[in-house]
Amino acid sequence: MALFVFNSASKMVSSPFVILHCILICVTLHCNNLAEAQMNPRPNIVLILTDDLDVSIGGMIPLVKTKKLIGDAGITFTNTFVASPLCCPSRASILTGKYPHNHHVVNNTLEGNCSSTAWQKTQEPETFPAFLQKHGIYQTFFAGKYLNEYGNKKSGGVEHVPPGWDHWFALERNSKYYNYTLSVNGRAQRHGQNYSEDYLTDVLANISIDFLENKSNRRPFFMMVSTPAPHSPWTAAPQYENNFPNIKAPRDPNFNVHGKDKHWLIRQAKTPMTNSSVEFLDNAYRKRWRTLLSVDDLVEKVVRKLEVRGELSKTYLIFTSDNGYHTGQFSLPMDKRQLYEFDIRVPLLVRGPNIKPNQTSPLLIANVDLGPTILDIAGYSVNETQMDGMSFLPIMTGKGNSSTWRSDVLVEYEGEGSNISDPACPLLGPGVSECFPDCVCEDSYNNTYACVRTVAQAANLQYCEFDDNEVFVEVYNLTADPFQLSNIAKSIDQEVLEKMNHRLMMLQSCSGQSCRTPGVYDSQFRFDPRLMFSSLVPHRNKRRQTLK
Prior knowledge:
Elements: E1 4-6, E2 12-14, H1 16-39, E3 44-50, H2 64-71, E4 75-81, H3 87-96, H4 100-103, H5 117-122, H6 128-135, E5 139-145, E6 167-171, E7 181-184, E8 187-190, H7 195-198, H8 200-214, E9 221-226, H9 264-267, H10 275-308, E10 315-321, H11 341-344, E11 348-351, E12 359-366, H12 370-377, H13 393-397, E13 408-413, E14 432-435, E15 441-444, E16 449-456, E17 459-466, E18 473-477, H14 494-508
Parallel strand pairs: 3-9, 3-10, 4-12, 5-6, 5-9
Antiparallel strand pairs: 1-2, 4-11, 6-7, 7-8, 10-11, 13-16, 14-15, 16-17, 17-18
């Protein structure tokens, strides 16, 4: 029997038999996947990702229901860090399980590889949702903010649906609460400013509930909900607009103080801040909390829907953020991007099958671990991927050995600046960005750094090197100095500096398994001084421009 026929123009075309044969193959594969899903039932997974939610300056306080329904019902990790304290690089690390030097997303612009065509071709096919979809067991759902430049017409617009997603409801560009566009499976859906129809956090909650009600009950699901809150413009739902009238940003020891021994970008901040700056950041702090009340409602709706459907007991729920935030620390008005705890530390709460309630873990987690952990929950191994992170599922379920858990992670950031001087702040010169009216700037080209963040029984340490003309180094003992007031780079033992520099170079060139090797404070760490460079030379920023 011929499988192909030729038309009058002598072009080969498929016969009906070929089409039928392909349909039978697809049906067979689908049936096999359904059969496997039913014979070996796997848990459902929900990942709720917030935008700019800190944990160091009180960001979790208004999330009362979230803490009760996820944290108290499972485990709270108190030492969770991001691979980069900026939205797009951090989100890329969550999706790929890779550090920024491996996924190559360095900032929130197309030029920085944020949702660029290069990202779409090289990294999106390797994300953990793409892995799940490829194996056909899980049905996948996404709603909310994806990457900051998603929807840019230069990289496919909202018509582009990344591999890995069966149901796609993604926000065009950056976080908003009203007057935005969603990509609904590749078709634009525009929203206005009617609260009942358009308030984005509530829209995401409603879409999520619709998915839970209408999905297939024959296959497990992975659902990712990515809220705009508490990112600017901090627009609260009407019913929450007047909450927290007296709340102010916390006056911790590092609030409104001069970072005298820190990188020049921190030292340029004006101390004390002006009254108008303090008033502005206090107001922003209140507004951030107000937006989070709708996130709390969303979490409650999802949990209750799972409960009503009888699916809560077989579902893992993960709650976290893409980066932290600061409001007045070291006299920096407000932003993220810095190497300090308030920007790199994020909340991580998980509940699910075999996780005992009311647990707290101090073990060191990185957001590059989320992908490997979700794949592990789904029944797959990180060794089947190119991911840099590791699964913390055994830690959550009590099957892992906490004494042999990793002791350090890598944090990377590539600074951004303008090629021209800000007309309002000419004395600062070119190369700075994110400047406030009083000429305090939150970023610069040479605010490019890499850090080893260590949490071990013998040390709670942060070691950072800047890619600038002086190769500035900052080191903090977080046990003695939790607010990072004193840079001990010049007083710490030289041998520790050399080992940390060596470890930093290793991590900045690591990939996959080599990112999971023992750290300086692991008993298995091996230090060979012959591998040291003649001077401290961090990973170079190819786009850096000479500054102060």
